[in-house]
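G., the chain you wanted modeled:
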Amino acid sequence: MLGGHWNADAFPENWLDFRRDPPRLKPYYKDFRPREVHVLPDGSQSLDGTRGFFLPGDFRFCLACGQSHSSGRDWTRLGSLSAEGRSSATTTLTLSSLRYLLGAETELADEARKLLGFSDNRQDAALQAGHFNDFMQILLVRAGILAALEAKGGEVLTDRDLAQQIFTALGLDSSNPAIRADYLQNPDQRVPRLRRDAEEAMRNVLGYRAYHDLRRGWRYTVPNLEQLGLLQIDYDGLQEFCEDDHHDHGPRWPATLPLVRWHAGVDRLPRQRIGAFRSVTTGGCSRSFCLEGFQAGLNRRTILNKRENFRTAFCDFDIDTVARFTEKDVQRL
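Predicted structure as tokens:
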């Protein structure tokens, strides 16, 4: 049972039949619609009890955020920090201990600021070491992103300067050899071209890691910065494109299926732009957007081998034509 103030009409879009006006709940989902209940502290139902909603069967969608779940087990959908494994718990305790040992409030001498870990087998030690390294990498990348946003003073941070801003925020542009040793094989490299090439390679790695970390993830215990509400990502020019009604075929988006508008991000606008990515107004970006979306969970070669089939299904990736897709087209896909 879930408490709260759920709107009785706020069903996921895939639960609704948009061929009706107004849209109606599909017959299959009627038996799974949340039921309002009032429960007393002793578990009995009464109108004087706390208001909540009972979800028959599996946890099919979240009443708070509207996220729909079509597969998987309930314990993974409802997982919390208590569902995390031993490696993450050990990493968190280790990090907390290091913050104390290296902090200014500790009274320990420099030579005593050490942390030793013991394991009963090499395999477990290697697993924990790798987990800790991954955790630190995530922290550094996310700290760099947040520091870069703060350095912009509220301005938009675009994909054109994201990698450079993270590189600068982490202090990797320093001339200090001790800092350069973190990513340069030869920190004292004096050949300008070689040093620039090494810095460019490091910026590319940081940019890739940043985008990889910002992608949609399903690890409930490690949400990304956007899921935590610390930043928002928007597509440069998308709002103007969606509001542009001067077209041979008339307004494109008002007559488009809600599902198509949702995936295009139209129904989420306007919103404050803190981060911006490439525009999706061109055919090339539309093609990349489509193929990257279908690649989720699959091998990239599998998608590329069927690229021509995708081109046919999505009308040569013409975004205007796709915007006019009907329910029949969605069923065809």
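The chain has three domains: 2-78, 84-214, 233-332.

Shout if anything looks off.
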